[in-house]
Amino acid sequence: MVKLAKDEHEMLEGKHGPAKERAMEILVQYADALGAERFIDTNNVHLFVGFHPYPEMVTVRDGDELASKFLLDTDEKIVVDYVKAFNTTHIFAMDLERWQLMGASESLHELMESIKSYCIRTGISLTSTCTPYQVGNIPTKGEHCAWTESSAVPFCNAVLGARTNTEAAHSAFPIALTGKVPLSGFHLDENRLGDHLVNVEIDVNSVMDWYLLGYYAGERSQLAVPVINLSHEMVPNISMLKGFNAAGASSGGIMMYHVVGVTPEAPTLEAAFGHNKIKETLTYGQKERRQTYETLNCAEDHNVDLVNIGCPHYSLEQLREVTRLLDGKKVQENVTLWIWTAHQLKAIADRNGYTDIILKAGGQLMTDSCPLNTNLFPSGTKVVATDSAKHAHYAPAIAGLGVWFGSMKECIDAAITGKWRGELK
Ligand code: F3S
User: Fold this and answer.
1) How far apart (Å, rounded) are the C-alpha atoms in residues 148 and 164?
2) Which pTM was predicted?
3) Which residues does a 6 A CB cutoff place in the pocket of ligand 1?
4) Cα Rg of the chain (Å, integer)
């Protein structure tokens, strides 16, 4: 049984109001299921509030009732005054401004508007992105957090050296209300050490290559902690690590990893493993790279209906790059080009003139969401081209689409010509 501190007891006894009481009831069960001995404080939660599976089944529009039912698992209407912990929010079910372009219904829009108003009233930050670290949520090394979103979790753990487990909508909300997270999993030193070694024998210098490496490492390591040992000297940038994370969390369940000499807890190979024995040694070379590429490319028809890029949401650097590729070009008439980013970065793109260039070319700069989560693809889409291994992994299963995976440049070429001409070089 989890041991409770005085303030946690008080919350459970209802001395801090009904919201914290219900939140603590949930957290005690959660901590016991995890085998946690106690809670620790957190002031950094990435919430998942703006999306519901099967949203068409949700008829409630009252924000308090919605949160009570879906996030606090009770039919009793609990009114939250103000969420305690600093927080950001994962995506919403739709682009909150361009929802009609996604073909979202009026009713889904109403639901999102109710959630939005609830967030504003209760102190929930409307970041609505899968990349909170790109819009100001950057915890420090060792900071205890509670993040949702599979691609963001390894960023928090491995890239920033902060500490989080993969939280769900139903755990993150009670954690944010109370500022308490069970001390378990990646909050503990011993679980952060590597146990799989991935020797990388080839150069990985592009975002596409880091997606491929991440996909391979995730598939082979599953929930383990892989240690990436590069054979060449290079420092991956944020876009590369973001791609590695998203791919590794899709093909497997990577939540923590190390890149020797790069990530904060792996100055050396020895430090990355600590006292752990290496359970498996893998080699990533040309053969593994090609096999991974072929797994991700499942389309047969070279005619492309949709080019969907920005999964996870594009960084400012990627927006600058894609704008250069599109400047003065025209997207093919029968092709939809969607570029996804956080709305905060779109504001910068607007100011920099990037959005105008994208719109003039016939594309759309979209925010707050992505088509996979609510399966909102342009009608008639059969084949999608993407530069994201995560999107390539899920689109066939979720939407039954044929997928071409390649570089950003190849995706933009597909948008302009309507044909997939990518290849593994
Ligand atoms: Fe983000 Fe959607 Fe991809 S949530 S990581 S753009 S699947």
Assistant:
1) 9
2) 0.97
3) 91, 130, 151, 246, 311-313, 340, 370, 372-373, 390-391
4) 22
